[in-house]
Specification:
The complex is a heterotrimer of chains A (339), B (234) and C (307). Chain A has 339 residues and is mainly α. Chain A contains 14 helices and no strands. In chain B, helix 3 runs parallel beside helix 6. Classes of the chains: A mainly alpha (339), B alpha/beta (234), C mainly alpha (307). Chains in contact: A-B, A-C, B-C.
Chain lengths: 339, 234, 307
């Protein structure tokens, strides 16, 4: 019984993380899948969103904190909004000098901004508390739910042990529901947007930007909007992570690995297909978590095992690019028009 | 005797068919011009002959061997050279280096051929070390033709050699084309505005909407009233 | 006054790190202009070279190949031999990666190649980490005393002079190769106009292989020199320099190897001098900001051609 409860609790934890990645993959899908923008600074926007949400909702600086700013104790949604806005502004600033140029420039600039964000989080203690990170980020409705369940279980010591085991993590169930609800709402919004006239322009830019420009559309403006919108969704993903983790520090955000995982998720699932993006998140996170178990059976050290997992994901990416570039779910096909 | 025979060739880009069964012939040592309005398929014809596009039907024969569907690097080795209409030079390379690249597939000494080209285009002779990107349109066209001649081809194909050139420069280019032809090289030219070109041509073809429309000697086409009105601007 | 007095010394450090950035920048630039994509695995190719040199060097030590320091340098014949073999092996490895991967993806858009290079980057780095671990490894654990240049008060180590000299020699060699050899000219022609190069009969596939050979050799050299300068190497060595290398390439004009030299020097010097004013940790951000400013002012870079 204990094993089963352990598995259930793990699956809930797994799904919360995979759902959070699904939010990031949706954001990337707007940028890459629909518009063809090459953003490799996802981890930067993710971290930025997490910090923005934490500073908006977290407690004011305590006496031993290095930081002197932030901590407004505002509610969950205000934090997510702040995360989206801050990421949108940064994406806007990055997009302006790069989106008129070849895609290489955006790629280099997004890696640069992710690195810069990482350095700021580490070094600007007055704002971010440096390497010590931000603590006591309030999970929404934590006290009523967790406290309530705890009180209930406390009042009923006669209930069987497995019920206690199962319900001790009841808050995670709620948070999973919350993550999936946010993911679903964002999915609906993105679906509606990409199927609107606006979304059709994005897809046309992805296929042939010059042709769209020649038809009189300001492609730069559309690309900028897609970049900003995608980054805002990534910021929300960061916020969702922060409220669950309750503690974030620069070490929580491995710059390239997070970005890389999200890319593999989107490409495996099928870029240009929102359901594919979400499916890819769960599949790749499943592979990632699965390799964690797998490597326990090999005679490797922990760091070797960690390296091996990344090598596996790297090989997976190359295999998809070589043999199944369209991913698991193909993008919706329209009858092809001759050029 | 026919050097190049294009027989009922169908070709285009992807699903889009542009040539619907075009036939032309270039005799050894002759000058042939293909004219026609914008979109008639002239450049497509050139690219298909040279192997940049693969025909979906028809045959292309060059020097008595079929070359249909052969890739450009192999076509070059058979003795055909092609000067595209635009981007036909290496701008950051000098004149000398552009010519050298024309002889890339040769392993033996090509300095003799290079000197002949400098004699053909004396204006380039003084500018051997100059970067081509900084030269005028007419000079670039000469470099492009010189580059194509480095392998001493049997057939030189020119895509709109006088496009975007001032009239006096265009005249110079055609004068050079006649000189090249005099050394025994057959020449296939496609032109949109083609009076100059037909004047020097042994034979001319008129293409329209991807089909053969007229075919005659250059002189006769120039004299033909229909051709004149429809395709030579009255 | 204290800050200003440090600047001459920082300029010297800037030239040293600028040398390494320049070598990497030339490689990135050649690959970009001839093969047509930004190679995000370049930093990790540098690290690969540095680790192959480490492996060979310890092998040579175990074979008792002498490594008596050459003159004032901290290393000797054994290390130089290891470095030369490592440069060759890295070139071979990089060509293999191209044949297995990039060459097959070339028919797709350049963005797919960029993405593939990110996969290669992470795989390479983690292969190194798998075998050697994340901890630093030392080429030679001997402390070298810096020489003070009289009058200027600038300190410089013999190894650092070696780095600058190697860079100068390699820049001259690459320049001569591009300028005077048939393959070098064909590389420039392919960079200028790939379609015309093929129409002309240039064997562009051979051009691409040569580009990887030179790019890989320069990567390995830059990685080994960075190891000499830092005294140690980690699997992150190249990745940590990649942003600065890209900044150098963009600053000089993306796709222009000569621009990469100028850009490398400017970025190297600015990064070092910036440490007099802002925390050392912000070095990569300094490079990034210079790059963004360049993109706003003149996206084609200092020596760039139009693209």
């Amino acid at each position: 019984m204990d094993t089963l409860i352990g598995i259930i609790n793990y699956v809930v934890f797994f799904a919360i993380t995979a759902g959070t990645y699904g939010i990031l993959a949706l954001g990337l899908n707007i940028q890459w899948g629909y518009t063809g923008l090459f953003n490799i600074g996802i981890a930067g926007f993710y971290a930025l969103g997490a910090y923005a949400a934490a500073l908006v909702s977290g407690p004011p600086p305590s006496a031993w904190d290095g930081r002197i700013f932030g901590g407004f104790e505002l509610p969950f949604l205000a934090g997510l909004l702040a995360a989206a806005v801050v990421c949108g502004i940064v994406a806007f600033l990055i997009g302006i000098p790069t989106l008129r140029l070849r895609s290489d420039y955006l790629a280099i600039a997004t890696i640069g901004i992710a690195e810069t964000i990482r350095l700021v989080l580490k070094n600007e203690s007055w704002l971010t508390n440096g390497v010590w990170g931000l603590q006591q980020i309030p999970s929404p409705f934590y006290d009523p739910i967790h406290g309530g369940v705890k009180a209930f279980l406390g009042n009923h010591p006669d209930l069987q042990g497995w019920i206690h085991g199962l319900f001790s993590k009841a808050y995670n169930w709620f948070y999973l529901f919350l993550v999936l609800a946010i993911l679903f709402v964002l999915y609906l919004i993105v679906e509606r947007l990409v199927n609107s006239p606006w979304g059709r322009v994005l897809k046309a830019i992805r296929e042939d930007e010059d042709a769209v420009a020649m038809s009189g559309k300001n492609t730069f403006s559309f690309k900028l909007q897609a970049l900003v919108l995608g980054a805002m969704i990534m910021g929300i993903g960061g916020g969702v992570y922060a409220y669950y983790a309750r503690f974030i520090s620069p070490a929580s955000f491995k710059p390239l690995y997070g970005t890389f995982l999200v890319w593999v998720m989107l490409i495996l699932g099928g870029s240009g297909n929102n359901r594919g993006a979400i499916l890819g998140s769960f599949v790749v996170w499943g592979i990632w978590a699965g390799t964690d178990f797998l490597t326990e059976y090999f005679p490797f050290s922990a760091t070797q095992a960690a390296s091996l997992r990344i090598i596996i994901i790297g090989v997976l990416l190359e295999a998809i690019l070589l043999w199944r570039p369209q991913g698991l779910l193909q993008r919706e096909r329209k009858p092809s028009k001759t050029p | 005797m026919s050097l190049l025979t294009v027989n009922a060739v169908t070709s285009g880009y992807g699903d889009m068919e542009i040539l619907h069964g075009v036939s032309i012939e270039v005799g050894a040592g002759k000058i042939v011009t293909v004219i026609g309005p914008n979109g008639a398929g002239k450049s497509t014809l050139m690219k298909t002959i040279f192997g940049l596009l693969t025909p979906t039907a028809g045959q292309i024969t060059f020097a008595e061997k079929e070359i249909t569907g052969l890739s450009p690097d192999l076509v070059v080795r058979r003795g055909m050279a092609y000067v595209p209409q635009v981007e036909n030079i290496f701008p950051s390379l000098t004149v000398n280096e552009n010519l050298e690249m024309g002889a890339f597939i040769l392993t033996d000494d090509f300095s003799g051929q290079m000197e002949e080209i400098y004699q053909l285009f004396p204006i380039l002779n003084d500018r051997r070390k100059q970067r081509v990107g900084k030269m005028s349109g007419g000079e670039r066209q000469m470099v492009a033709m010189g580059r194509a001649l480095m392998l001493d081809p049997k057939l030189l194909m020119l895509d709109e050699p006088s496009a975007a050139l001032a009239p006096n420069l265009a005249a110079t280019i055609f004068e050079r084309i006649v000189a090249i032809n005099a050394s025994g090289v057959a020449i296939l030219i496609v032109e949109q505005n083609a009076k100059e070109s037909l004047k020097v041509s042994d034979r001319g073809y008129v293409l329209a909407s991807g089909r053969n429309r007229f075919e005659d000697t250059g002189e006769n086409l120039l004299a033909n009233q229909d051709v004149g009105q429809l395709y030579l601007g009255g | 006054m204290d800050i200003l007095s440090r600047i001459p010394q920082l300029l010297v450090y800037g030239v040293i790190s600028g040398s390494i950035l320049s070598l990497g920048g030339i490689g990135v630039s050649l690959i970009y202009s001839i093969i047509g994509f930004s190679n995000f695995a370049y930093g990790d190719m540098m690290a690969l070279g540095a680790y192959i040199a480490l492996g060979l060097f310890s092998l040579f030590v175990s074979w008792s190949i002498p490594n008596t320091p050459l003159g004032p340098l901290s290393f000797g014949f054994g290390f130089i031999l290891a470095a030369i073999f490592a440069i060759g092996l890295t070139a071979v490895a990089v060509v293999l990666i191209d044949r297995i991967l990039f060459n097959r993806l070339r028919s797709h858009s350049s963005v797919i190649l960029m993405m593939s290079s990110i996969g290669v980057a992470l795989a390479l780095r983690n292969i190194l980490q798998f075998f050697w671990g994340p901890q630093p490894h030392y080429y030679i654990e001997r402390i070298q005393i810096a020489t003070v240049i009289p009058g200027l008060g600038i300190r410089i180590k013999p190894d650092q002079v070696f780095i600058i000299l190697v860079t100068i020699v390699l820049v001259v060699l690459v320049h001569a190769f591009l300028k005077y050899t048939k393959m070098g000219k064909a590389m420039r022609a392919t960079a200028d106009n790939n379609a015309l190069a093929r129409v002309t009969g240039i064997n562009t596939d051979r051009v691409i292989v040569w580009t990887w050979v030179i790019g890989g050799a320069l990567a390995a050299t830059a990685g080994i020199l960075a190891g000499i300068e830092n005294k140690f190497i980690t699997p992150e060595l190249g990745w940590q320099m990649l942003l600065s290398i890209f900044a150098a390439v963009v600053l000089g004009g993306i796709g222009n190897p000569y621009g990469a030299i100028v850009g490398g020097m400017v970025i190297g010097i600015t990064e070092e001098v910036s440490t007099a004013f802002i925390p050392t940790g912000y070095k990569p951000a300094v490079a990034f900001i210079i790059m963004i400013l360049m993109l706003i002012v003149k996206p084609t870079g200092l020596l760039g051609k139009r693209r």
